[in-house]
Amino acid sequence: MPPPALLEVIALTPEDAIAAQAGGADRLELVTDMAADGLTPSVGTFVEVRTAVDIAVRVMLRLGDGFAAGDTGPLVRAACELRAAGAEEFVLGFLDDDLAPDLPAVERIVAELDGCPWTFHRAIDRAADRDALRKQLADLPGLDTYLSAGSTTGVDDGMGTLITEASRRGAPGYAQGLMAGGGLRLDHLPRLRAAGVDAFHIGGAARPGGWTAPVDASAVREWRTALDAPVR
C-alpha cells in the first residue's frame, strides 16, 4: 500500500495555519500578499504560525511579483532572519531573462539555508526548458520538491506534463518529488494519484470564501479524505 499523500496548504496567518492543521494538512506554505502570488512573510508572522501549529512550515523566499530575483541581498537577509527565528523549510525559485534557472541567485540563497529542505516553486512552469532546469538544479543541497501545475495555465492544461514527469521519478534530474498545485481540483486527483504523484498543494481550494476569507478546516478535510482514499 502506498504511503499517504502529502497535503500542503497555503497559509497567510496563524488562524489559517490552525484551520489547515485541524483539517488534516501535513504542511503549510507560509506567504503574504497573494495579490502578488505569495511573497515572504514577516519574521513575526512566522513565529506566530510556528507557535500555533506543530506541522511543517515552508516559508516563501520571494520579495516581488514575477520570477526574477533582482538584488539577492534582501533575500539573503530574509533567509538569515527567518533561520534565526527557527525556520527550517523554504520555498523559492528564480529565472533569468532567458527563462532558464537563475543559478547565481538560487545558489547564493541556498547557501544560506545550510541544507534545509526547500521547494522550487511554479517558476518551473515558466521555464523555457523544464527538463534542462531540473538537471541544472539536481545537485543543489536541500532541494526535495518541485511545485508545478505542468503548465502556466494550471493543472487542466498541464496534466500530461505532470503524468510524464511522475513517470520519470528517479531518472537524472528527477530524484526530487513532484507536488501538483495550481488550479488543482478534487477531480484531478484520481489520474494524478494513479500516475504516482503523492504530494498536493492547495490555496484557493482551502478558502471557499475567496482569498479575503480564512482557510476553512472543512474544505481542507474534504481534500484530506479524498487523498486518504485507496488509489485505483
TrEMBL record:
InterPro entries: CutC-like (IPR005627), CutC-like_dom_sf (IPR036822). Belongs to the CutC family. It holds the Pfam family CutC. This is Copper homeostasis protein cutC homolog.
